[in-house]
Amino acid sequence: MQLFFQFLGLLFTIVCQDPNDAVFSQSINVVLNGQLKHYFVGNVVVHASSRQEKNEYFPDDSTTFDDDGTPEFIEYLEPYDYDQFIDLNDLRVSRIYPDVNKNQVLPYDIQKGNMSNYMVKKYLGDGTFAFVQSAIRLSDGLPVVLKQIKKEYTWWAKMEAKVLNTLNQENNPNIVQMVDAFFNESSPVLVFKELQNCTTFDYRIYNYYHDLTSSDIKQLYYKLFQALATSHSKGIMHLDIKPANIIINDDQIQLIDWGVSDFYFPMKEYRTRVGTRHYRAPEQLIHYKYYNYAVDVWALGSIFATAVFKKYPFFNGRNNDDQLLKVVKVLGSEDFFKFCYKYNVRVPNDLYQKLRSYEKIPLEKFINDENKELATPQAIDLLNKIFVYDHAFRITAKDILQHEYFKDL
Ligand SMILES: *[C@@H]1O[C@H](CO)[C@@H](O)[C@H](O)[C@H]1NC(C)=O
Ligand SMILES: *[C@@H]1O[C@H](CO)[C@@H](O)[C@H](O)[C@H]1NC(C)=O
Ligand SMILES: *[C@@H]1O[C@H](CO)[C@@H](O)[C@H](O)[C@H]1NC(C)=O
């Protein structure tokens, strides 16, 4: 579903200065008014002057962006016993919605079927797991998006269908709606209601990065945090919140791609190398496996920070440890080591040396002439409550909706 991308060519060059240090210098080619322009991320300014133009960008290879340059990271997870006794006061258990899911969640039962009810309009793109097409449902003319998942990933498709089936009972307009699921030959196809004329919420290319007013930001993020609040209340973590998984048109915004989402169980271990580096929460960066819903709040908060400060990405790490360094440089070393100590996470000595000497920087330091209208005291107060190492004290999506910042919506 990240295939709604509409910009032209993302190029990546890896310049290795040090054998242990992969430096990504990322550039984007964009066609504006028929002219090819070249921009570098970090100080990317891609400014299209009209709504028409920004729809003319599309990616060459969108997956490369998440590439860490680090070797495959294999994590061993303990098998989970669904019948075990759980002490809900255990430090490792989420303080919100710890036991929404009572029993092991079974995958959605996708039925045999065929494409006869759909007329494919357009191929939208493909990725590792799936290819995506836009189509019309012939029985009622509904515009849809068909995500056909490779048959090796059938179990994943069934879990994504299960997640969406659970979420869609809530009728939250800010969560993508699955309207059907069936097999085309032996490959599962998930059918979504199409958000017409949408684009992804990707600041690298989107005018939004420059043009969003304070009130736009407030409205859009309220809806996004609302989507998270709904999901969390149903015992579901999205786990891949990133701009490419947010789609938007003139009057709607939606959280899409629930393909790696998971149901929360107390004391269950989860993979920490999930999602996209720039939006990974500190607990994931230190490979703490008993994380919970709070990782989504951090991820969406990091995107919110890019809008508020016009700084993309807000925490711009080159790999997992560097990402952690970028966070520690802002939130400070002292609280970081308290956090590690509390959760009994050992930081390897070389990493300890890298992370140990940073003072906390007030977020106000990021205010400049470009963003001073957006970075209001309320916005900064909200970010201070999101950017908290200890996930047990991080503000929840539900409480964010009650925050002062959103009062005048
Ligand atoms: C396709 O599915 C419909 C209903 O699910 C069924 O009536 C039809 O016979 C099927 N067509 C083929 C070619 O299998
Ligand atoms: C059905 O699946 C086959 C095999 O993956 C694929 O080639 C074909 O395009 C699919 N049909 C439609 C209408 O998408
Ligand atoms: C989408 O855009 C097309 C072309 O600009 C327009 O004709 C159509 O009405 C739009 N659809 C919606 C639902 O906004």
Automatic annotation (TrEMBL):
One of its GO terms (cellular component) is cytosol. Residues 1-17 form the signal peptide. Its EC number is 2.7.11.1. It comes from the Eukaryota. It is an enzyme of class 2 (transferase). ATP binds at K147. One of its GO terms (biological process) is regulation of cell cycle. It catalyses: L-threonyl-[protein] + ATP = O-phospho-L-threonyl-[protein] + ADP + H(+); L-seryl-[protein] + ATP = O-phospho-L-seryl-[protein] + ADP + H(+). InterPro entries: CK2_alpha (IPR045216), Prot_kinase_dom (IPR000719), Protein_kinase_ATP_BS (IPR017441), Ser/Thr_kinase_AS (IPR008271). GO terms for molecular function: ATP binding; protein serine/threonine kinase activity. Residues 118-406 form the Protein kinase domain. Keywords: ATP-binding, Kinase, Nucleotide-binding, Serine/threonine-protein kinase, Signal, Transferase. It holds the Pfam family Pkinase. The keyword Kinase applies. Belongs to the protein kinase superfamily. This is non-specific serine/threonine protein kinase.
